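Fold sample X.
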Amino acid sequence: MNKLLAAGVATALASGLAFGAVAQTPSASNEVATAHAHALMAASADTVEIGHAHLHHVINCLVGPKGSGFDAAAGEPCKGQGNGAIPDSKGNAALKGKLESALAAAEAGLQATDLDTIHSDGNKAADALKAGSAPASSSASW
């Protein structure tokens, strides 16, 4: 009986890990984490120029090198991590929605000319990315 229970628990855990892996690919996870870090940097930037640079890093990580708004000259902190968090989240509508919210905030901040707005938009992007990096909760119950 104990062996059967242990096998059942092991199978349930393995299944949960497999489903979690489908929810967000490793490259999307890395890109989201990098974008989140740059959103936080934008939220605490000392100048408009530095804030804009970090917001553009957020955009580049989210859209990827083939995406609208990508600018290699602004820097590619996610280079080699994937095709952009949004393209790499294909098939996960909930994650894609959070990433698109972060993208909208970063794009708005990039248009801002005052540091307070850049800080606010950086925080909005960071909040959306933090929500996007949280693992999906399991609906399984014991």
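Fold sample Y, listed below.
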Amino acid sequence: MTDATFLLLINCAIGLTFAAAFLAISRRSSVRLGRWCAAAFACAAATVLIEALAPDIPSVRLASTLSFGSLMAAVFFIAAGMLRHYRPDSRLGWPGAAVLLSVAFTGLAGVDLPRGGWAQALTYQLPFGAMLAFAAGTVLRHSPGRAVDLVLAGVLGLCALQFAAKAVLIPLDGADNGVRDYLTSAYARYSQTAGSILSLMLGVALLALVVTEVIAEATGRLERDGLSGVLTRTAFLERAERLADTAPPGSDIGLLICDLDHFKAINDRFGHSAGDEVIRRFGAVLASCAGPADLCGRIGGEEFCLLMPAADAASLLRVAQRLREATEHLSWPGLPPGHRVTTSLGATLAASGEPLATALRRADMALYRAKAEGRNRVQLADV
């Protein structure tokens, strides 16, 4: 067994191990990136297996085409996975297929060119580098800039540079004399050693990203109230405290506390399933009235809270009235036709630096006044 063959087997084992790990993670999570990564590493493992078996494949052209095709598939799955993960609204579709086919045909053209020359090296190697550079650029442009994203972009960039280096190294060394002579060449030892290192780096970087997203997904589920879909009391208060602590000087935070009127009577008359449906639909209405930067939480049985960063009295009351009216005019499955559900709201503005607990107590007192004055109304607290 040559040194290159041994390195090929190591790379095959690395690819299969990462493919199995990503597949196992993706089966227990909705993070779809793991499936793209599993497919990529499975194709990478197939590539090195084909190269190891190349001397036994009857046709040199067939061996070269299979090797190129499987590696191109691996690189494509990485690039497509990055695009779908960081830009989930994107569609690969016909444009993606056209790009892939053009890149693939460019590389396949290199299969029939004279071995060891610049034309063959560039047309064969650079398509891989271009796809990986695209993947790195996607991460840099569209990621939230976390450390795990930046590390991944750097590793993808190194992988792209490796293919560019191979395109230069082959003609300079006269290294590539054909796929069947590959296993006995010094170039194979370099290529597979670099491949082992970069495969491990890329696998670990991708695994770190997938695990980060899985943890974020699990944390998000724990922070969401299972019935209403908004934040739980604990999650809401923790995030609200962070927002209050980091509010710019001179800016106010708007707080609304909402309480569903006569909710106990709904449970008593129509059953808890009807009450649950009221909670579920009100949570959806609250979320629809909130802005993208606002926080919504269920802080009690039928009590909810909305936090608006950088609010003023006019915008706070406008949202409160919209929420009150939307609740009043909504239809409620499980309740008799025409049965209205209303909500009372207490509103207040918290000045920068004011303890959140103080503002919440003030909003709560305003809510009690709204209840006392007849319900289905908004009461702004005196500051």
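Sample Y note: The CA atoms of residues 344 and 376 lie 5 Å apart.
Also: The chain has twelve helices and five strands.
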